[in-house]
Amino acid sequence: MTESIRSISVVIPVLNEEGSLPTLLEELKAVAGRLSHLSFEWLFIDDGSTDNSPELIRSFAKADQRVKGIIFRRNYGQTAAMSCGIQAATGDIIIPMDADLQNDPADIPMFIEKINEGYSCVSGWRKQRQDGFVLRLLPSWSANWIISVMTGVKLHDYGCSMKAYRRSIIQDVELYGEMHRFIPAYAAWSGAKVTEIVVNHRARKFGVSKYGISRVFKVILDLIVVKFLTNYFNKPIHFFGAVGLASLAIGSVALLGALTYKILGVAFVSTPLPTVGAMFVIVGVQFILFGLLSEVLMRTYYGSRNTRPYSIREAVNIVI
């Protein structure tokens, strides 16, 4: 038997979206009007905007107590803004979404309906995306395939910001880097029931996209961290030992190759391949390990000091 839903929190990271915000708020209010049996709050998290977005958020909050505004001192990234909003949310259901009007607030009732069916996490699937092929669609398809294979949680569209979560499964998830896209995988690993629904995706009318093909590489690096923290955090020797053995095997092959050259009468110094190959392997392994160790140290730092990876300048209609 699922818990009854009484309140909804919509979390909206904002970065230079002054053109979209008034229309977005009107659409959110229209949805709330159709779902009058539920209470709503809309949390706008300004992630260091340089346009008029902070002033708009302040004016929204002054006119409507359901609007909550949090203004960062500078840009910390979408994940930090989303994490802040999730921690501040009070609703039974938390629905993150983008501020650029490409996500459609009219889809919110579908998410609530799926949650009522017993799911704890509902992910949006932008089946008919209104984006460019090379810079948006191709990187997105690549990233979704990689994430689905490595996490074992098959979703068509991890990159869709519009999702719905029961508050109980998301508020204890610590988000860093670009980790917000992996929340459905975290939820599934913890035993939550996960599904996806097709959502409306609209063409951007205002501002410029903050995404590009470089996002694929960031996703891959964050996915390495996710797999490490999930599978090896309590048994790191299994990971570091495997890497060490692989490195040792490569070194052994290189030494055997060099020895073979020597037997054939070719001097070690005659070819740079053994040295160059060994150097790149060692440097590559060191950098990956340094990156993973840094991620662990960062989480230890934030956890021990009870601090967050962002700084809030101002909070409106909400106590942080």
Global outline? elongated
Distance between the termini: 33 Å
Largest sheet: 8 strands, mixed
For the residues shown, what is the average pLDDT? 83
CATH topology of the largest domain: Spore Coat Polysaccharide Biosynthesis Protein SpsA, Chain A
Helical coverage, percent range: 40-55%
* DSSP summary, beta strand count: 8
Order of helices and strands: EHEHEHEHEHEHHEHHHE
- Number of domain modules: 2
The CATH superfamily name of the largest domain is Spore Coat Polysaccharide Biosynthesis Protein SpsA, Chain A
Low-confidence stretches: none
Rg, nearest Å: 23 Å
Explain briefly what this protein structure is.
The protein is α/β, with parallel strands linked by helices. The chain has helices spanning 21-34, 53-63, 78-88, 108-116, 133-151, 167-170, 183-189, 214-231, 236-263, 273-305, and strands spanning 7-14, 39-46, 67-72, 93-96, 121-125, 163-166, 194-198, 312-316.
Please describe what this structure looks like.
This protein has 320 residues and is α/β, with parallel strands linked by helices. It has two domains: 205 residues, Spore Coat Polysaccharide Biosynthesis Protein SpsA, Chain A (Alpha-Beta Complex), CATH 3.90.550.10; 74 residues. It contains ten helices and eight strands. It has an eight-stranded mixed beta sheet, sandwiched between helices. Helix 5 runs parallel beside helix 8. The protein is elongated, with a radius of gyration of 23 Å. The protein starts with 6 loop residues before the first strand and ends with a strand. The mean pLDDT is 83.
